[in-house]
Write a structure and sequence with these properties.
Distance between the termini: 39 Å
Number of helices: 12
Shape: globular
CATH class of the largest domain: Alpha Beta
Radius of gyration: 21 Å
Strand content: 15-25%
Number of domains: 2
CATH architecture of the largest domain: 3-Layer(aba) Sandwich
Helix content: 25-40%
Bound molecules: pyridoxal-5'-phosphate
CATH superfamily of the largest domain: Type I PLP-dependent aspartate aminotransferase-like (Major domain)
Order of helices and strands: EEEHHHEHEHHEHEEEHEEEHHEEHEEEH
Number of strands: 17
CATH topology of the largest domain: Aspartate Aminotransferase, domain 2
Strand order of the largest sheet: 4-12-11-10-7-5-6
Largest sheet: 7 strands, mixed
Length: about 400
């Protein structure tokens, strides 16, 4: 008999009752160190006092009023994102996939406005993940997410991640944009090089294409800069963000330059809940904490500690771990044996450490950005012991 909750996830049989910081407590009272962070969502950990205060304060005043009216929280957060990035304008959503949908629609509208509606195709990368809607599974291009959901939404071409020559050869008369995750998350933690990202920018300019980044997972401080592409010293025309920006409250956003957003006039796009007052209160508070030089320096310090430790684990357990990779607090360990990723994640969970799965036999470490040195050392010690047992 089908479960009342539609069985679209192979869930681990554990439920959490509450959390604080990097700790989660399950319904049996067992504590876990949370290095999955709701898959890079709980950027400030669990029950962060500033987020709790922002949400409860807003909850006593106004939850929702619709986008028929001005929402002051949207004005404030949009102004802040505009001040801090390449963007001139922001559309708020409830999720990452919706932020990507906005990006895809904006790309098509841009070329349509310029009298070239035949330019609608986007070049995407193998191993990409952009969400679970019909358009975003087409953009992701992964066979296992597309299977059974034909016809596939038209207009997405795929090339190997990191190869600029092949990408340039894939550009045709109908190409409208390039869409890339600066650090692929679900695909198994693959970071684009700064050269590749700069090459994408130059190529987009050369061919009159829009450059779209999906920073839904790698943005909001996760790499030690507010956005991952800042490391390369270039900027996209459009960027989707979500996950960390809400710290656990569902919110996303699509950022764009004025030029890219040329067609996004009244009536062109919308969302009932997108940018509602509760979401804006929380996201504003998240920005207050993360958009701070000292906070981002802390992320880089913790990242260096985690990187060192993971490197040592790979050396110590070559039969279990093939490689450690990633940037900032977005890390993955690739397991040596077939199916090793799932085994490592389950063994770590039993030992009180939560990790997140990813493609390519990788276990992801995505701790809250507020993680401290003692928690990183404890996670490494648990992994050391688990790898010893598995090896
Ligand atoms: C999680 C994720 C998405 C989808 O976000 P949802 O909120 O699940 O719709 C899209 N792109 C990337 C890179 C992601 O990590």
């Amino acid at each position: 008999m089908i479960s009342p909750v539609m069985p679209t996830y192979a869930r681990t049989d554990v439920a959490f009752e509450h959390g604080a910081g990097c700790l989660l407590v399950d319904t049996e009272g067992r504590e876990y160190l949370d290095f999955a962070a709701g898959v890079a969502v709980n950027a400030l950990g669990h029950a962060h006092p500033r987020l709790v205060a922002a949400l409860t304060e807003q909850a006593t005043r106004l939850w929702h009023c619709s986008n028929l009216y001005r929402v002051p929280g949207q004005d404030r957060l949009a102004e802040r994102l505009v001040a801090r990035t390449f963007a001139d304008t922001v559309f708020f959503t409830n999720s990452g996939a919706e932020a990507m949908e906005c990006a895809i629609k904006m790309v098509r509208k841009f070329h349509d406005e310029r009298g070239r509606p035949n330019r609608y195709r986007m070049i995407c990368c193998d191993g990409a993940f952009h969400g679970r809607t019909l358009a975003t599974i087409a953009a992701g291009g992964q066979e296992k997410l597309l299977k059974g959901f034909a016809p596939v939404v038209e207009g997405f071409d795929h090339v190997p991640f990191g190869n600029l020559n092949v990408l340039r050869q894939a550009i045709g008369d109908e190409t409208a944009a390039i869409l890339v995750e600066p650090v692929q998350g679900e695909g198994g933690i693959h970071a684009a090089s700064a050269d590749y990202l700069r090459g994408l920018r130059a190529t987009a300019d050369e061919f009159g294409l829009l450059l779209v980044f999906d920073e839904i997972q790698c943005g909001m401080g996760r790499t030690g800069r507010l956005f991952a592409h800042e490391w390369a010293g270039i900027a996209p025309d459009i960027m989707a963000i979500a996950k960390g920006i809400g710290g656990g409250f569902p919110v996303g956003a699509c950022l764009a330059s004025e030029r890219a957003a040329i067609g996004m006039t009244a009536g062109s796009h919308g969302s009932t809940y997108g940018g509602n007052p509760l979401a804006m209160a929380v996201a504003g508070a998240v920005m207050d904490v993360i958009d701070d030089d000292a906070f981002l320096a802390h992320v880089r310090d913790m990242a260096a500690r985690l990187e060192d430790g993971l490197g040592r684990l790979v050396s110590a357990h070559p039969a279990v771990l093939a490689e450690a990779r990633g940037v900032g607090l977005m890390r993955g360990v690739k397991c040596a044996r077939e199916g090793g990723g799932a085994a490592l994640i389950e063994a770590a969970r039993v030992s009180g450490l939560l990790l997140a799965p990813a493609g390519d036999n990788v276990a992801r470490l995505l701790p809250p950005l507020i993680v401290g040195p003692a928690e990183i050392d404890r996670a490494l010690a648990i992994l050391d012991q688990v790898c010893g047992d598995l090896g």
